[in-house]
């Protein structure tokens, strides 16, 4: 019996295979990407989510390399956690390597990581695998996908991509390489599904350039542009227009400043020194002479744009005549916060441009026609949709079927589900236990759903805490201490709490001599009393002293 | 000095003038609509939001009438609260009146409300005002806007509208009436801005009919359609297709059942008795013979679709071969929950259709070209954009300016900002105090931001409670009680809590004899200790006994 090739998407629940993909043949493993997920709105208090590495940590001596497609958080953010626990080199293009270095520097562990630079077009022999990175266009420069020749066949992993013929950095995707792969018979295509529910073709970055040119030509005062800290191409476009229209460029937000510095050093950003000024200096220039780039395009309250919207930025305040550009889509779940930030900026007198009213942002991911082109260029035997929610994978699979790939040659699976290929057939194995890991403050994986569900209940109706002293005759002594948070308005709690004291007295009287724990009996009685009085169900905690 | 006409939009923060508009001339007031707002994601635990009625309650004897444009929650949901406190009749079309009656019946107070039925085309003399309701198309039948002749001039309030030439009920908007208003010189147009950032023209309800027909023709098994309980026209379309394709119709969800019953009784829904069956019976029919309509199109976990997605519905479970249709847009802020529900339904084997992949829903609101048509039909002197977030009002104002309305004839204001018209000029007065009112359980207005902010902190890192006994020598006696919720995993808290006990001991030692309150000193010390240990900042509450 010949050995099989195993492919395991790992990562969060929402974005399938976005965060990490494992390629395994006998005793050798390649890892592709290790990103973070952003918590959903009901994962209260959770900072980030990282993939559950358990599957590969059990066999970590087999890991030969970590291949990274590009430098976005959802592809590199979990590297500090992963590299702390394994001993393999990272392979990445120069810009991606630079972003990884910035990230590793910011974390405490994972200092001694070997990063090997690769270039699109390289041919790398890693164990039994031959890895051929190929250039793709996305919303950050220096992105690659990987052709990986395995003992079972050639597989192609697209990374995040779109077929942009006129990208910001002038480097279109490598169509020839994809076609060349197809001449060698591609066993499986693992392809980005993020925009599988968008018809047509994603707009080129050139569209943004034109929209930005309009902004620069028309803005009567300052221009303030919010985008992702890693959107290097947008920073380049802004710098080019600043030069064209005689404005100075100030960059704010720690991560954006660090990324800019690194990208300029590596030659991915070409910005003359005298174009860039500090924010403090920008404030004293005539308003028409200034453009400011800032973080906070997702409405994050602590980022620059969030603070500007609420009037809480130390150095800068929004004024009538300012033009603010949101050059980003809201990540799903952030819509409300983004639009609130936009409304607040309008309130302060700014003119705000965002994607719905001007093409100041385009997606970095392929739409349906591009997905079809990818399938037809690569002509794989098997299609494995990755990167996207289940609904996107299903839609991507639909496209594959429309193009003649048989249903049993397409695998729509959730993260943690191993696939096996023997060259002829595709087998879907049972899902691995585990799933993903919450990062909350200094803890990684310690906080789970039970704690988050407690937070959910606390967030709905708060908590009431009672300390009641009971003497040896099981009578209440003195007035119980009653403390509530997030439950009632403290100024209006007087009458209610008098009622609580009475309810405690009654409960102690009734339950003092019954079997169970007295504090639990009082908690039950209080919960019922409070629901009847307020229609709300706070957590109730009673300590009997 | 002649008296002025005052217009005050009231309501929530997000949607301006959506929920309530006050029209006031000397001693007479008309109220238009009284709706609820849905809480934003950071208004934790809040059920709904109602407008702050304070402004009109101060002069409630002046209120002559409450005019209602249509029967959606965001226009009628606050009526039970309002009608409890004022003594004026409601004017509404028959279907809207029916929906209001259902609503009033469900609430405890507000039983003795007079509801006067009106029809589009009526001319009503109410105090100094002449009110002319005119038919508009929206996503519920029997919608009107109002032409209101005041002593200062004619104002036109559109309600929610779109210019649908082929609406589901076959009754297009009354273009002639709008043109006729313009022949009488319209002083001000108050117009729906909800879709002001959408170019073009909103699709007709007919598009949905065609998409639904495809679904009925192709679905191999059961069809389950999720939509709003008040979307009467969608229920009619579904019933028509059920009849055409020989399926029986089951309606689930309390509010949808009640609305259907009422609308059938009033003749707004024409469904033969033998078409409708109960869910229990639907389960035993062949799958191809059934269509089920359900609530939960916003992903609400307790509604039918949310329970189906999680496998928690008592009577029904999703199976492979089921076709689920989401015939609704996610309300902003609900995207994540809606898409999660869709992913869960895919997981259970259903084929799920939603607006992005098939036109199974269209907006009920006018897009930009329709807004321009409204302005050109009515030709007002003043434009007052209403219904929408600030960003929508701004965009609507832009359209007005493009069409030649001078900037000082357009008022973009937030809720609670009175406007005054004297026939020649528009004056914007300072914003009124107050804003909106939280409804949480049985409490209306008692819970404010301080309680919600406590919930926010609780939701982020939970709470830790400590009861420490201190003797007369200010020494800790026994081991303190430590209780935490939403902070750490109880199974892993042992070592941490040993550290907490030590930190308490140290703090009591250090602060026992200092001035301030001992519990506060211990709280501060514990907060620092816990942040150093966990990187998280729970609420800390210490009781010293």
Describe, in plain words, how this protein is organized in 3D.
- The structure is a homodimer of 545-residue chains.
- With 545 residues, the first copy, chain A, is α/β, with parallel strands linked by helices.
- Chain A has 3 domains: 5-200 and 363-444, Metallo-beta-lactamase, Chain A; 205-353, Metallo-hydrolase/oxidoreductase (Rossmann fold, 3-Layer(aba) Sandwich), CATH 3.40.50; 462-544, Ubiquitin-like (UB roll).
- The first copy, chain A, has 16 helices and 26 strands.
- In chain A, the strands form 5 sheets. Chain A has an 8-stranded mixed β-sheet. Chain A has a 6-stranded mixed β-sheet with strand order 8-9-10-11-12-19.
- In chain A, helix 4 (94-106) crosses helix 8 (254-265).
- Chain A is globular.
- The model of chain A has no long low-confidence stretch (mean pLDDT 92).
- At the A-B interface, helix 11, helix 13, helix 14, strand 24 and strand 25 of A face helix 11, helix 13, helix 14, strand 24 and strand 25 of B.
CATH homologous superfamily annotation of the largest domain in chain A: Ribonuclease Z/Hydroxyacylglutathione hydrolase-like
Strand content of chain A: 15-25%
Overall average pLDDT of chain A: 92
Proportion of residues in helical segments of chain A: 25-40%
Number of domains of chain A: 3
Q: Profile the largest sheet of chain A.
A: 8 strands, mixed
Span between termini of chain A: 69 Å
Number of strands of chain A: 26
Which structural class should the secondary elements of chain A be placed in?
alpha/beta
Strand order of the largest sheet of chain A: 7-6-5-3-2-1-20-21
Could you name the CATH topology of the largest domain in chain A? Answer: Metallo-beta-lactamase, Chain A
H/I helix tally of chain A = 16
Tell me, what's the shape of chain A? globular
Low-confidence stretches of chain A: none
Specify Rg of chain A, calculated over alpha carbons.
28 Å
Q: What's the assembly state of these chains?
A: homodimer
